[in-house]
Amino acid sequence: MDTExxxxxxxxxxxxxxxxxxxxxxxxYRRRSHGESLPRAVKFGNAVRWRQADIDEWxxxxxxxxx
Length: 67
Hints:
With about 70 residues, the chain is an alpha+beta fold. The chain contains four helices and three strands. A hairpin with a 2-residue loop joins β2 and β3.
């Protein structure tokens, strides 16, 4: 598996999602509990994780042009 492919398949925790989106961990938890827009999460055992590919797609969908 090549590096780009393996990094897009990575499962990230909430701190890593926070670092990539600029949202605080508490904002991510709040948005999750209220059903607000976030990248699609997956369960891995008892843990909630996010796929890098889903994060990238979500960010692209939510970009707005700078004024």
